[in-house]
Amino acid sequence: MRPAPVLAGPTIRCLAALALVCAALVASAGARAADVIAIAARVEASAVETRLVFTLSAPVEARAFSIDRPDRIVLDLPAVNFQIPADARAAGGLVASMRYGLFAADRSRVVIELAGPARVVALATEPRDDGAHLLALTLAPVEAVAFAQAVSADAAGFRAASLRPAIEPAPADGDDRPTIVIDPGHGGIDPGAVARGGVHEADVVLEFARHLRRRLEESGRFRVLMTREEDVFVALTERVAFARRAGADLFVSIHADSLSSAPQVSGLTVYTNADEASDRASATLAARENQADALAGLVTEEARGEIADILRDLTERETRGYSHVFATTLVGGMESVARLNKNPHRQAAFVVLRAYDVPSVLVELGYLSSRRDIALLTSDGWRERATAAMADAMERFFAPRLADRAEYRAAVSP
Ligand SMILES: [Zn+2]
Fold first, then answer.
1. How far is the CA of 184 from the centre of ligand 1 (A)?
2. What confidence tens digit (pLDDT) does each residue in 367-388 have?
3. How far apart are alpha carbons 104 and 72 in whole angstroms?
4. Among 89, 96, 253, 335, which is disulfide-ready with 362 (CB 3.0 to 4.6 Å)?
5. 179 C-alpha to center of ligand 1: Å?
6. Distance 257 CA to ligand 1 centre (A)
7. Ligand 1 mean position to 349 CA, how many Å?
8. Is residue 351's pLDDT more than 90?
């Protein structure tokens, strides 16, 4: 198991101007150690060009790529700890919107959605008198044809820059307890839903997942793994591959999305995979979730081949059966502790639920678009009760298998 991220305190070079930020960083448990801290971002737009300027604690090497569908500029950077206030997310001129965060353990990415086709005129870091460094990207408008040319010139480099090492599950080493993979949704450059008060889905679900893992590990009956243990981006297909490589017996993806089209929807919902969605809201939700990789600037390839394989089909059918059983068990178990959605078990085609041989569910703990849900999701008491109920549901789901193991143990022990 990967050790919990530890702050390498002395390596953080606290500049006078950044002292407050550094103090806040050291205080926030679980924050990631990155040498470079970004404390501000601003956009300066004129009729001829748009400058996007980040204020950093140290100079960095940056590379820019043009990508399309939608038109974007991607900046690749070494690991940067973005401590930019949520309400100060810069936009204006050619910058329609942007997102930033960890893209891999040691790399950060800024994805800039363009308001129109643009080219990179300059990209440079320069020192400021107070010891901070400015990273400035200058964009100028171009014709669509010129932008398309830049995209194809950058394509190979961008593809190479987007390759990431696979995340490896800790080996089982003869541990034959049922393996549960907990998948905290989103992370890093993909914050997930952002509630009005600045609460990020990625943080809410990571905190929940950590509590759930602790509870399951305390019982001693399960091997528990997580697809991410910090605020880092993990591609949807990597999450599925991780569960399969880990030999997972159950995969539980944790989310707390926002349904702006349906603010009346609230309460906990458990989703299982199906080609046909059970309802329109579920289809919309799955389509949006499935966008996560593309939004982070990943080039996604349709991974699912139409392989006619009878054994695989049989396995998939059996797996879906188990997923349903667990979903029903979970809904029953959560009834007493959580406010359930009025249709608490729904179906849709989520990429993250596509492991054909691992029973998988996606749990929306609640919706950050619902004020009532936000209050619950961020309360310690609710998290304690909800993780306890979820762990109980897992115990019930695995009860037959755990009983077999106990019998086997009793028979072989002297
Ligand atoms: Zn989500």
1. 9
2. 888 888 888 888 999 999 999 9
3. 20
4. 253
5. 23
6. 5
7. 14
8. yes
Tell me: pLDDT of 58 over 80: yes
For residue 34, the number of C-alpha atoms closer than 13 Å in the C-beta half-sphere is 29
Task: Provide the CATH topology of domain 9-161.
Answer: Immunoglobulin-like (2.60.40)
Question: At the top level of CATH, which class does the domain 179-407 belong to?
Answer: alpha beta
From ligand 1's centre to the CA of 290, what distance in Å?
9
Q: How far is the CA of 284 from the centre of ligand 1 (A)?
A: 12
Each residue's pLDDT tens digit, 185-216: 999 999 898 887 778 899 999 999 999 999 99
Between the CA of 382 and the centroid of ligand 1 the distance, in Å, is 19
291 phi and psi, to 5 degrees? Answer: -80, -10
pLDDT tens string 83-97:
987 655 678 999 999
Three-class SS state of 252:
strand
Sign of CA dihedral 84, 86, 87, 92: positive
Judged by average pLDDT, the poorest of 3-12, 35-44, 69-78, 102-111 is: 3-12
- Is the model's pLDDT at 308 over the cut of 90? no
Q: How far apart are CA 399 and CA 381, in angstroms?
A: 27
> Using an 8 Å Cβ cutoff, are 132 and 55 in contact?
yes
What is the distance in A from the centroid of ligand 1 to the CA of 186?
Answer: 6
The domain segmentation of the chain, as residue ranges, is: 9-161, 179-407
Q: How far is the CA of 190 from the centre of ligand 1 (A)?
A: 10
